Structure formats: structure tokens, C-alpha cells
Automatic annotation (TrEMBL):
Family recorded in the similarity comment: Belongs to the ATP12 family.
Pfam family for this entry, one: ATP12
Classification of source organism: Eukaryota, Amoebozoa, Tubulinea, Elardia, Arcellinida
InterPro entries: ATP12_ATP_synth-F1-assembly, ATP12_ATP_synth-F1-assembly_N, ATP12_ortho_dom_sf
Main location, first listed in the record: mitochondrion
Assigned GO CC terms: mitochondrion
Biological processes, Gene Ontology terms: mitochondrial proton-transporting ATP synthase complex assembly
Organism of this sequence: Arcella intermedia
Gene3D superfamilies according to UniProt: ATP12 ATPase, ATP12-like
Keywords: Chaperone, Mitochondrion, Transit peptide
PANTHER family: ATP SYNTHASE MITOCHONDRIAL F1 COMPLEX ASSEMBLY FACTOR 2 (PTHR21013:SF10), ATP SYNTHASE MITOCHONDRIAL F1 COMPLEX ASSEMBLY FACTOR 2/ATP12 PROTEIN, MITOCHONDRIAL PRECURSOR (PTHR21013)
Protein name in UniProt: Uncharacterized protein
Domain of life the protein comes from: Eukaryota
Localization of this protein: Mitochondrion
Length: 316
């Protein structure tokens, strides 16, 4: 779909009341399909969006405004789809394609070591987390610490950055590649080679299909470039060993506080139940004829008291 360029000037303006930046077309804010103003967190990101609109001459091809389109989706999709996207990210992590090795075909195996292994090493160096490598048809077995830490890290991200991270993962089909791109530890060209490797190997063996492989490759190039660029311009640092370690320590402290609160509540409940039992026993002593009915309540209270005890910590 194309529309005639209806604006003359493209400007970048700072929105002081919410500490954001916006792109204006003849002093009019760009808005999303849901009529939300397209605010971005940094001036660099706003300049990147402005360049898309400034470079248009004549007709406006709405389908080729990838930066604007991606940012608009980040405004419209969040927080509505955050839980769904989080599950998708964890699925990508569990089945990260850079962690698969096909040892049955020596040529493919060597290419995977050449393209994918450096990304795995970059991820581990950046985050301090290990990834499991699967060989043949065996499933990946990442350490529990890796999965839990990434899960916790996702919860710390604001909706906007979370969506950009998800978009980068979706474009590269890999959490490891997205983290390496975010940290600027690999080039975008390397990421594109990694996500396209299996298809390139198949095309070399079975033939290249024009109008299919080339179009898919072109779309991959656009998706990876846009998502990685915006993530790097977000102003939010990539996860690293120090921040993830601090996150893990803080989580442990919160778990201790939560456990202490559970134990405190259990003690209060036990005290109240004990007082109620004493009152019932006094009533039995005063009116022995109601002993059977009152004893039923005492037995019920004893069961509740037992159930209210905090769970014992599991042996590590």
C-alpha cells in the first residue's frame, strides 16, 4: 500500500513530561494503529525513525517503514501479550538452534562449529551462563540456573525493552544470538548467517529456489537489522555477568523474606488455633453433653494447624 507524501518537514522533539522523544510530521505526532502516540526512550532512536520518513520521496510505501512498524507494535502489543511473548522466549531458549550439532554430516557439523559456536561462546562470556549442546536428535539440556536466570531477567525489563528483546529473538530464532547482538559482541551479518545457516545448507544441497529463498533471506535481513538496531539504541544495557549475579542474589534475599513471612503467619495462625482449642476444651468441661460435637471441631482445628505449617526446605 502506498500513499502520497502528505508532509513537508520531519522533526524530532523531546517530550519533557514523560522524558521521551517523538517524531513529528509537520508538527503532528506519529501514532500507532491503536491511536497511541509513538514515543521512544532515546533521541538516537527517534532520529533513526525520523530518517525513515525523511528519506521518502513522492509515495509513502507503508510496508517498508520497518522501524516505525516495529515500534508501533511494541506500543500496541504491550502489556497485553507480554505473558505469551515470555513463554515464546523461553521456548526459543529451550530449543535454541545455535546449540544443535549435526555430527552425521561432517560438512554441516563443521559449518555449525564455524558459525554457531562463536555465538554460544559470546553468550557465555557475556552472561556467565552455560548452554547445553545437543548432538544429533537429542534434546538440549540447558542448566536450570541458565533458564531460571533468563526467566528472572525478563521480569526486570520494562514493556518497551522487553518487546524489542523479543523481536530480536524472534528475528534470529535464538536467545543466545539476541543477547550477543544486544551486547554488540557479534555483527548483524554474523547473526543473519546463523539464522539462515540450515536453509543455506539445504539450498546448497537441493538447489536455490528463486522467489522463495531470496525473498525469505531479504525479509530476515530487514527483521534482524531493525530489531537489533532498536535494541541497541534503547539505552538499556545488555545483560552481563555482574547484573545477572546481582539479580540472582537479590532474588535469594526476597525468597528468604518470603519464607520468613510465611513462617510468621504460620506461627500467628498456630497461636489463634491453640487459643480456640482451649476455649472449646473449657466448653466441654462446662457442658459434657456436647463433648462429641465439640471434639469434632477440635479434631478439625488440629488438622488445620498441621496443614498451616510452612513446608520444610528441600535438601539441596
Amino acid at each position: 500500500m502506498k500513499l502520497k507524501r502528505w508532509y513537508d518537514q520531519v522533526n524530532v522533539e523531546e517530550i519533557f513530561e514523560n522524558n521521551k522523544w517523538a517524531v513529528t510530521l509537520d508538527d503532528r505526532l506519529i501514532v500507532t494503529r491503536n491511536e497511541k502516540p509513538l514515543f521512544v526512550p532515546t533521541k538516537q532512536m527517534a532520529l533513526a525513525v525520523a530518517s525513515e520518513w525523511e528519506d521518502i520521496d513522492g509515495l509513502v510505501p507503508l510496508a517498508v517503514l520497518p522501524l516505525t512498524s516495529l515500534l508501533a507494535r511494541s506500543h500496541d502489543d504491550m502489556p497485553k501479550f507480554r505473558n505469551y511473548y515470555q513463554d515464546e522466549i523461553l521456548d526459543f531458549l529451550q530449543n535454541d538452534h545455535v546449540c544443535f550439532r549435526d555430527e552425521d554430516v561432517q560438512r554441516d557439523y563443521e559449518k555449525q562449529l564455524e558459525v554457531h559456536q562463536p555465538i554460544v561462546e559470546c553468550f557465555t562470556k557475556q552472561t556467565g551462563l552455560e548452554l547445553g549442546i545437543s548432538h544429533g536428535c537429542s534434546s538440549q539440556d540447558h542448566p536450570k540456573k541458565t533458564i531460571d536466570t533468563i526467566h528472572l531477567f525478563l521480569k526486570t525489563l520494562d514493556d518497551f525493552t522487553f518487546h524489542l528483546f523479543h523481536s530480536t529473538i524472534h528475528a534470529t530464532k535464538s536467545v543466545a544470538t539476541a543477547v550477543a547482538l544486544w551486547a554488540n559482541a557479534i555483527t548483524i551479518e554474523h547473526a543473519i548467517s546463523a539464522v539462515s545457516l540450515e536453509e543455506d545448507l539445504n539450498a546448497n544441497e537441493h538447489g536455490f529456489v528463486e522467489g522463495a529463498h531470496d525473498l525469505k533471506r531479504a525479509q530476515t535481513v530487514v527483521d534482524v537489522h531493525c530489531a537489533a538496531l532498536l535494541l541497541q539504541l534503547s539505552g538499556v544495557p545488555a545483560p552481563n555477568q555482574q547484573t545477572l549475579s546481582l539479580l540472582g542474589d537479590a532474588t535469594k534475599e526476597l525468597e528468604k523474606l518470603s519464607q520468613n513471612e510465611i513462617e510468621r503467619e504460620a506461627r500467628l495462625n498456630a497461636m489463634m488455633l491453640q487459643q480456640f482449642k482451649q476455649a472449646l476444651n473449657s466448653e466441654i468441661a462446662r457442658d459434657p453433653e456436647n463433648k462429641k460435637a465439640l471434639q469434632f471441631f477440635i479434631n478439625t482445628l488440629e488438622q488445620k494447624q498441621e496443614d498451616s505449617q510452612p513446608p520444610k526446605p528441600k535438601d539441596q
